[in-house]
Amino acid sequence: MGFWIRAVCTKSVGPLAAIDLAEALASCDFAIWAEVQGLGGAEGTAAEELLRFEYPKHRTQELGLLRYRADDQFIRFDRFTGDAARKEADEMLERLDESSPDGIRAALTNCIETVGFELKASDVSGMGFNIALAAAMVIAVAGEGLVQTDSNGDTWFDPETGDELQHGA
Fold first, then answer.
1. Please, what is the Cα angle at 99 between 97 and 101, to 5 degrees?
2. What per-residue confidence (pLDDT) applies to 169?
3. For 68, what's the count of Cα atoms within 13 Å in the CB-facing half-sphere?
4. Which of 68, 62, 84 is nearest to 13 (CA)?
């Protein structure tokens, strides 16, 4: 089972242009992210230089790959719209409890699009977590939504502020 980071959008973000995502992350400080993760700043710089978003030739923009390592490893991301997004949002709604903030319920109830990044253990403990989280934040801002992280699905962020939405608040 992978670790997921999802942008839950109440407005369509349109085509997910790989160049737009890469440009949006260009202002991020990858060296600081690496140091926060307990990695060397050089690893952050290398990830920044290698960062690219790809769409396999045989696919549409519903599936993409985020690459940030020199090896063949990647983070897969999926985009769901229409009924598929609605189904995913309904499943997330079912997992909420009564202490979940109303903003989360509203975003899920009004969800029309989701973009999920599937991380492997090496991504979570390395640079992949911060890169995928930043990409999801960019998407959620454009889609006027929220970002959900972790394998249990109970950690939510406001992408405008970067603040975690607290349960019971």
1. 105
2. 53
3. 24
4. 62
